Amino acid sequence: MTFGQGLLVAVLAVPALGAVAVAATPRDRAARLVGTVAAALTLLAAVPLVFGGRGWVAWSADAPAVRPWHQLDLPWVPGLELRFHLGVDGISWPLVVLTALLTLLCCAYTMWRVPGGGSGRALVALLLVVEVGILGTFLALDLVLFFLFFEVVLLPMYAIIAGWGGADRRRAARKFALYTLFGSVLLLVGVYVVVAAAGTADLVTLTGGAGMSRGTQLAAFTLLALAFAVKSPLWPLHSWLPDAHTQAPTVGSVVLAGVLLKMGTYGLIRVAVGVAPEGARWAAPVLGVLAVAAILIGSLVCLAQSDVKRLIAYSSVGHMGFVLLGVATLTATGIQAALIGNVAHGVITGLLFFLAGAVKDRTGTGTLAELSGLRETAPRLAGLLAFAAIASLGLPGLAGFWGEAFAVIAAVQVGGPLWTTLGVLAAVGGALTAAYFLRLLRQVTHNRPSPAVGRVGPGLAGAELTAWVPLVLLALAIGLAPTLVLGVAEAPVDALIGVVSR
Amino acid sequence: MNVVQSVDSVALLPAYLAAGTAVLVLITDLIVARPRATIAVAALGALGTAVGSALVGAGAERRTFCVGADCSWIFGGRAAVVGGVVALLTLGVLGLSIPALRAGRSPVGEYAFLLACSMTGGVVLGAAGDLITLIVALETLTLPLYVLVGLRRGSLASAEAALTFFVVSVVATTLTLLGAALLYAVTGGLHLDRLGALLAEQPELRDLPLTTAAVAVLLVGLAFKVAAVPFHAWAPATYDGAPLPVAAYLSTASKLGGLIALLAVVQRALPAEQTGPVLALLAVLTMTVGNLVALRQRRTVRLLAWSSVAQAGYILAPLGALALAAGRTDDARSAAYAAAVAYTVFFVVLELAAFAGVTALRPAGADGGTLDDLRGVARRHPWRAAAFGLALVGLAGLPPGLAGLFAKVTVVRALLDGGAAWLALVVALNAVIGLAYYLRVTAALWAPTPLAVPDGGGAAAVPVVGVVAVVLAVATVAAVVLGVAPQLVLDLAGR
């Protein structure tokens, strides 16, 4: 086993063993510490995956479209075409690091504050299990294994929402579980439609269509795209999201918005588009229209929201719309936009949910009408909130800008009346995004302090700063140097586009 | 023709062991008259039967009671799997029964004897090579259950359940026999393989209305036994009225028996063109109705009963692929049969674990109670609740219950290999409905208990009987092992 393979195994094994260790540690605080250490080690194993294994030359006609930097391929269940095939490349690595980072921050945050409802120990253990599922999804290079990890996330996340969430948590958690399972059973059928037609589940072989007939590709793409549309979520399959995000505890919302949604968009790029390119070309206009509808509808709904967490949740629908628009263009620019949009949304929305949670914890309310004048009593918190909101609305120089701008550019570049219109409408949606975030800031930070805000002290806890500062810095770093993400993703995206547009 | 048949006693060894167990239990109960000894004999006998099945099955296929090329007893790979699984299930159910037997709710000797008799039927069933052996074995499997269901002293529900079960079962058997008789009238054969060959060679026989009627009647009779919708109405009432361990036996070993009988007939005797559409329809109805009704259940065992109706639908689903021409190629057919067997094995392990979980979480000798009785039990009994929860999640087909997930995957895969994508979608969507109620039970285990519950209410500490804990642990470990290495089951099922 090479060093890279060892890292791949470690990235999954450390959080899994960490979850077991957390569950086995009797004292609550010690258990949370163990969990945080495990999450930190996972991040330490995830980062160096970027080194080595990249000594390959430009794309050539017979090379596979997926060329992982490191991979590990072991047989597991031959009867079901399931192999334990892991690998990492420039499309998955940024998401792997983002997942490891956000989980670490959430675990560290839990050291300081455990939301009411259950023990902190169980919460940290569940967070680590969720991490295993998400990382496995990003690393899997076998379709069936991908599906398996996709499913792993479901129940722990359900338990996090149902156990530690807000007043209406049970209904929200059930809705989350049923919607998501609806998506993943379609994924199961889609996966085996592909496997039955191609005779293999290996993503490296399958990427590019593997000679599947047009009919099979259309069916497979429809099923897979529906499955990922539920997870992303794409309008009109998004209605689980606002409830789940609003009711989940802060760390749950962060993981949900930060990385769980990315499983959908990542799957769309790697699996749906990669495996059924002909289906993708066929469905691209529909996806584009739905993506723009999501942007516009998400923004308009946000303008009418009266709850902070709900507003941020709906803003995810709009942001994911931009990501999906990028994918739908099926151009290198568009997919690059989608990838950086994914990462940026994870960083910024993670931060926004942390901040919204902090506001809610301090004031006891999330209703916009009861919040105002935060900058009078808690200037630092208000400042951070302003920073996150501005980053999210896509100010140039911050992370949110690249994904949205390049999605629009890609749509316009594709040309033709349809895509030009979509590009223009998406740009209008971008303006609406600015409108609702500015409305949020005006209501929450400006004016006289409301009674609820008046009680808030100006200080920030050390744990809060520890959790937030890395995200602030990342939002700046990606905004100023998008090549952090795009640099590693360029070659694999070109290879993917090479087979998709063949 | 040689009148004296040579009998291959090695092939019959598992049946000898099972029947011997029943006789020994009876004698021990008469002579030693100590419950402990009786149970020990039954347990050892069941274990011996399982080992015997495995040993005989490890070798080549053995046939005996042959007339020409047609044999009534074919002990091959599948018979070994069925025999072994039935014997192990009997052992598990015997373990679950110990608290109730200790509480004196049922007479020990009779109970163990009847259970051993039923096991004999199950072992014979797997090896049956003709319709008469098949039906007699199936009856040997179910006949003792009529008594077992009603064996709870002083329980009216139990007696009612037994009567319902008895009446429905007798009707079902009659129908099956009628079907067999009609088939004999048409073809002059009763051996499964011979029937299959005759009907394949002579299409004009297949097109006779009488053949269609015979096939339909035979299938309906067997569908009663597996509680497939619309022949399912007896199951929930019977399960709920029966003592918990007997309900466990009904939904595992008895269901396995019915399915194996159905499978034997469909695979070897009947023309797939005729059975395929019927089975596809039965599968769709069974899983959908089972899941929808389970959503509304408030009593634990009723919920499990309806869920097991739905599960029978998943088991039948791969056979539904035979409805399409693409599903009738040799590869697709053997994949479908293997998938049905594999799903059944995954299912019985999880179902036994679930029933063991209920038994472990309820007071000794109690019935399943309502879902509210299980509310918050995880706070007092984290391990037992975790094992029960794992079984439920597995039945729903989700990680961490990987065994259940692979079971669903196997079925979906077989269906897509057979070109029946629509049926695969129905299975998939039903899994979503299924999750809704499995999740409700699982969530209830960890739910905060309402303060108003008086002492002795739902979350009161329940001491667990050691044997029940062992059965629960073994079933859970088996489920976990099959979840990590599902290839074991797939290999066995493909034999």
Offer a quick outline of the entry.
The complex is a heterodimer of chains A (502) and B (495). Chain A is an all-alpha fold.
Secondary-structure topology with pairs:
The complex is a heterodimer of chains A (502) and B (495).
Chain A: H1 3-24, H2 28-46, E1 70-77, E2 82-88, H3 93-112, H4 120-139, H5 143-152, H6 154-164, H7 169-198, H8 203-206, H9 214-231, H10 240-247, H11 250-275, H12 277-303, H13 308-329, H14 332-363, H15 374-377, H16 379-392, H17 400-414, H18 416-445, H19 451-454, H20 462-480, H21 483-500
Antiparallel strand pairs in A: 1-2
Chain B: H1 9-31, H2 35-58, E1 62-67, E2 70-75, H3 77-102, H4 108-127, H5 131-149, H6 156-187, H7 192-201, H8 203-206, H9 209-225, H10 234-241, H11 244-269, H12 272-294, H13 300-320, H14 330-361, H15 377-380, H16 382-396, H17 402-417, H18 421-446, H19 466-484, H20 487-493
Helix pairs in contact in B: 1-2, 1-4, 2-3, 2-4, 3-4, 3-11, 3-14, 3-19, 4-5, 4-11, 5-6, 5-11, 6-9, 6-10, 7-11, 9-11, 9-12, 10-11, 10-13, 11-13, 11-14, 12-13, 12-18, 13-14, 13-17, 13-18, 14-16, 14-17, 14-19, 14-20, 16-17, 16-18, 16-19, 17-18, 17-19
